[in-house]
From TrEMBL:
Compartment(s) of residence: Bacterial flagellum; Secreted
Protein name (Swiss-Prot/TrEMBL): Flagellar hook-associated protein 3
Organism of origin: Parahaliea aestuarii
Coiled-coil blocks: none
Presence of keyword Aminoacyl-tRNA synthetase: no
Gene Ontology cellular-component annotations: bacterial-type flagellum hook; extracellular region
One Pfam family matching this protein: Flagellin_N
Gene designation per UniProt: flgL
GO molecular function: structural molecule activity
InterPro entries: Flagell_FlgL, Flagellin, Flagellin_N
Domain Flagellin N-terminal, residue spans: 3-140
Family to which the UniProt record says this protein belongs: Belongs to the bacterial flagellin family.
Keywords, in A-Z order: Bacterial flagellum, Cell projection, Cilium, Flagellum, Secreted
Length: 398
């Protein structure tokens, strides 16, 4: 069969192009360090590599989310640390104010310091994060969550929601607690709080309540102790029950609790006891009650008794508020620790993904260099063959 010169040239050129294409493909692999440069190099590996790359990108996005969550929680932890210090200092000032040797001027001086702490607490409650959002406003984080009313009291105007962030595929983490949780709540195990009725006119002051029997069937119920004075004889009733004889310093028992009274109650004086969650749980209201009695003179026995009773109540409320803040601070610390664990897990996961991706697309340099050399020899051989074929013509001998 006769083979035309054109056919021989076309076959030689095709062979050179094929060898050059393979040579350049291997050279591109060596230059990029990737075995799969184009999807056509290994379609199955390229498809799997896309999925692994997407998993790495998602893991990195969760990592960025954890950075934001950590910043928010760290700021909240710092604020809660300041709040706990403020409450501890306020409790110290109340202990100082309860000293019976202080004059009205002395108590007014203590009230000035306490008001400074009160203002600082408001500022802490209205703290913002690095993006200008209020930490403790819930979803209403565009404006101050705690505002002053016309009467000077502080009210919460945020909502009860808790901002959360997806920090891992299966973890939606709260990153900012609302103001009610921090400043207007107490721990469920806070126990009982006692409070004198604001309308009391006697000089009786209370000590307690103290728990004496948690197995009492009525333990956990609210109690109201009312005093009656008839013909110089003082009696009391518990929740409107039968009248009982009262003596100064003798404990009054109710539902596994003990209250001791000093001084002389007036007819109609009343004292309430209830679990802390049913009494005042607003730390700002506690400050306001303390400031109200410290900034007003206490000259009469009734005013002295009101001062002492209010300070006793507020000190216990401060203790409960401090326990609540410390509990929430511990929760924040636990979430920060969890973020560290999630970072560690994500780091290991990323390493696994990167190893899988490397197995799929990375180049074996030893094998590639060997193939590169082979393709280079093949290309040179094709070029030499073309030169030889090109010279096979009768015209060369004419």
């Amino acid at each position: 069969m006769r083979i035309s010169t054109v056919t021989m040239f076309e076959q030689s050129v095709s062979s050179m192009n094929r060898q050059q294409s393979e040579f350049m493909r291997v050279g591109q692999q060596i230059a990029s360090g990737k075995r799969v440069v184009n999807p056509s190099d290994d379609p199955q590996a390229a498809s799997r590599a896309v999925r692994v790359s997407q998993s790495i990108a998602v893991t990195q996005q969760y990592g960025d989310a954890r950075v934001g969550a950590r910043n928010s929680l760290s700021q909240q932890e710092s604020i809660l640390n300041s709040v706990s210090d403020t409450l501890a200092s306020a409790k110290t000032k109340l202990v100082q104010a309860a000293n019976g040797t202080l004059t009205d001027a002395d108590r007014d001086s203590v009230a000035s310091e306490l008001r400074g702490m009160y203002e600082a607490m408001i500022g802490q409650a209205n703290a913002t994060d690095g993006n200008g959002r209020y930490l403790f406003g819930g979803y209403q984080d565009g404006s101050e969550p705690f505002v002053r009313a016309a009467d000077g009291s502080v009210n919460y105007v945020g909502d009860t929601n808790v901002r959360a962030q997806q920090v891992d595929s299966s973890r939606l983490m709260p990153v900012a607690d609302n103001g009610i949780t921090i400043f207007q709540s107490v721990h469920s195990g806070a126990g009982y709080v006692a409070e004198a009725d604001p309308g009391n006119t006697g000089s009786a002051t209370f000590n307690g309540p103290k728990v004496v029997d948690v197995t009492d069937p009525a333990y956990g119920d609210p109690f109201t102790i009312d005093f009656q004075v008839t013909a110089g004889v003082t009696t009391y009733t518990v929740n409107g029950g039968p009248a009982q004889a009262w003596a100064e310093g003798v404990p009054v028992l109710a539902g596994g609790l003990s209250m001791t009274f000093e001084g002389q109650p007036a007819d109609g004086d009343s004292f309430q006891m209830d679990v802390a969650t049913n009494m005042n749980t607003d730390v700002f209201r506690s400050f306001e009650k303390a400031l109200a009695v410290l900034e007003n003179p206490a000259q009469t026995p009734a005013e002295q008794a009101a001062l002492e009773n209010t300070l006793n109540t507020v000190m216990r409320e401060f203790d409960n508020s401090l326990d609540n803040v410390l509990t929430n601070r511990a929760s924040v610390g636990a979430r920060l620790n969890e973020l560290d664990v999630l970072d560690s897990v994500a780091g290991n996961r990323t390493l696994n993904y990167e190893q899988n991706l490397s197995d799929l697309v990375d180049l074996d340099y030893v094998e590639a260099i060997s193939e590169y050399t082979l393709r280079q020899v093949g290309l040179q051989a094709a070029q030499k063959a073309f030169v030889d074929v090109k010279g096979m013509s009768l015209f060369e001998f004419l």
